[in-house]
Q: What sequence folds into this?
């Protein structure tokens, strides 16, 4: 080493390089985490295979995979954008990762962009995997890919807002417990594998307003029934997205 | 090279609820120096440093770091400073080299990561993830993350807490190399010897205020002076001894036969005392000069032990 190896030469890397690096790291952390993989990959895939193969739940007319695949896609979005992101961000906050990054050259908005990109990368992998499995099980998707894309994006925005709100306001352990509990409750009551019409009328109309129901119902309208733009469901998701992201922006505590 | 202060804090006040953590603190840090902020737990060290880093908004007073406002000019300031938090700051599932390479990628002209890993002995971490690293390894990784971006100014919050003596020395060496390279270093510490060894300037903080500041040698010289002790037969005529010594010197018999002389103890005074003893047929047994350490200064000023 030279005599002055640490001679100052400060400077931020170009923004694009910083965001790419941050996205890659966030994605790597997510895919390396066993519990996260269980939530985002194994549970949706198992549910899809199990309930398609075994006729436990009455999924209405038609092949059960045609009912289940859209629901499981909705579940995949929720598991990554909400549950996974809430838990990971909660622990990053707890262990000072967010605090340390706050004094790095990476701007906060760039960190949030990287987190969003990492969620989207994970979702692409999930959708590919689940689509391949569903097609193998005889799934015949209908409808307009653009509506599907829009539903997935708005669903991601809605769940991200709620996940970040939870991660930024509760203790990490509380986030861990609550995010898993919400995942389980919405899995059962959000029209993912159990059709909403199995619930009493009054309950049904409330459940229908949940982001998971709007997403699974919208995806089912398009992919199973070939409906055009499901505006109602898109509207519910947009509402949740505005509420969730707005509240997260206002209440998120970085330390 | 600029001679502007790297940190200029004026009248800083920071409260948490009803508790005042920092209470009207003024601090100026010269460039290319090592400044140690010493103080007992809860003195306001971390709050002061974190205000400089832009984590906390002052309730009153102004803070300028490299001439910038840490909050308003955060985007300009952040690439120029390096921060080592007291703990954490790393993804629990990340490996040491992975996190360090990542921090390097956020900077325009980072250090060579492999050289830095070698220098800080982080090579042995291998594929171990952060949560399974030893406390010392986690500390050294945090230090590496603070310097990898080639900052002008580095903040180290208790950089050697929990390190073994070997790792501690290695960290001290790195701090010295940083200064030799022209980097300004501000560190907080509980360890007197760390401040004495490393710092050009020591700032003693207590109850949210600076109660003393200066070079370590200056601080330990100031206030009460050094002492000379010896034993001899009881009841010596100290008035006659004092006549031979400079006017501001004190002499007392602590217990019969044990004498203490306080004042500016230099070779000349020592010679005067021994020749007086020779004239009076006294053998000054166990004659010793005691120098004040920074630890004594600290205890005197704060009435507190430094360690938690």
A:
């Amino acid at each position: 080493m030279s005599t002055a190896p640490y001679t100052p030469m400060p400077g931020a890397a170009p923004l694009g390089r910083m965001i790419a690096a941050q996205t890659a790291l966030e994605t790597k952390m997510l895919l390396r985490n066993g519990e996260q993989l269980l939530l985002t990959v194994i549970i949706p895939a198992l549910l899809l295979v199990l309930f398609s193969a075994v006729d436990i739940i009455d999924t209405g007319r038609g092949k059960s995979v045609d009912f289940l695949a859209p629901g499981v896609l909705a579940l995949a979005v929720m598991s990554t954008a909400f549950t996974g992101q809430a838990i990971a961000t909660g622990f990053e906050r707890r262990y000072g990762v967010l605090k340390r990054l706050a004094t790095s050259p990476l701007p906060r908005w760039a960190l949030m962009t990287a987190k969003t990109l990492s969620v989207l990368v994970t979702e692409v992998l999930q959708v590919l995997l689940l689509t391949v499995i569903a097609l193998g099980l005889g799934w015949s998707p209908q409808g307009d890919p653009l509506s599907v894309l829009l539903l997935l994006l708005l669903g991601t925005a809605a769940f991200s807002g709620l996940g970040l709100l939870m991660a930024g306001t509760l203790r990490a352990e509380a986030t861990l417990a609550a995010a898993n509990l919400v995942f389980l409750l919405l899995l059962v009551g959000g029209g993912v594998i159990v059709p909403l019409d199995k619930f009493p009328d009054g309950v049904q109309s409330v459940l229908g307003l949940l982001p998971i129901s709007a997403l699974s119902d919208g995806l089912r309208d398009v992919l199973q029934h070939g409906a055009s733009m499901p505006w109602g469901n898109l509207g519910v998701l947009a509402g949740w997205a505005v509420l969730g992201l707005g509240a997260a922006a206002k209440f998120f505590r970085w330390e | 090279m600029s001679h502007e202060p790297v940190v200029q804090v004026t009248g800083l006040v920071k409260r948490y609820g009803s508790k005042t953590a920092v209470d009207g603190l003024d601090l100026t840090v010269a460039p290319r120096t090592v400044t140690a902020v010493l103080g007992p737990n809860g003195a306001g060290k971390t709050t002061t440093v974190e205000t400089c880093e832009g984590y906390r908004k002052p309730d009153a007073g102004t803070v300028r770091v490299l001439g910038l406002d840490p909050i308003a000019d955060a985007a300009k300031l952040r690439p120029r400073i390096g921060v080592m938090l007291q703990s954490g700051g790393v993804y629990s599932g990340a490996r040491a080299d992975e996190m360090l390479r990542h921090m390097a990628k956020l900077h325009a002209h980072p250090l060579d990561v492999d050289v830095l890993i070698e220098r800080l002995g982080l090579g042995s971490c291998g594929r171990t993830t952060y949560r399974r690293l030893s406390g010392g390894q986690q500390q050294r990784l945090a230090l590496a993350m603070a310097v990898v971006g080639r900052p002008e100014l580095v903040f180290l919050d208790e950089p050697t807490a929990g390190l073994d003596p070997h790792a501690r020395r290695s960290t001290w060496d790195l701090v010295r190399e940083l200064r030799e390279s022209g980097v300004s270093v501000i560190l907080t510490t509980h360890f007197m010897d760390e401040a004495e060894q490393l710092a050009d300037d020591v700032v003693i903080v207590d109850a949210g205020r600076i109660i003393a500041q200066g070079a370590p040698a200056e601080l330990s010289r100031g206030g009460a002076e050094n002492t000379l002790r010896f034993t001899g037969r009881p009841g010596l005529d100290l008035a006659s001894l004092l006549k031979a010594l400079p006017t501001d010197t004190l002499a007392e018999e602590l217990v019969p036969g044990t004498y203490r002389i306080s004042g500016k103890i230099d070779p000349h005074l020592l010679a005067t005392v021994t020749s007086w003893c020779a004239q009076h047929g006294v053998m000054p047994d166990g004659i010793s000069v005691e120098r004040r350490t920074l630890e004594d200064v600290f205890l005197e000023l704060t009435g507190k032990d430094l360690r938690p």
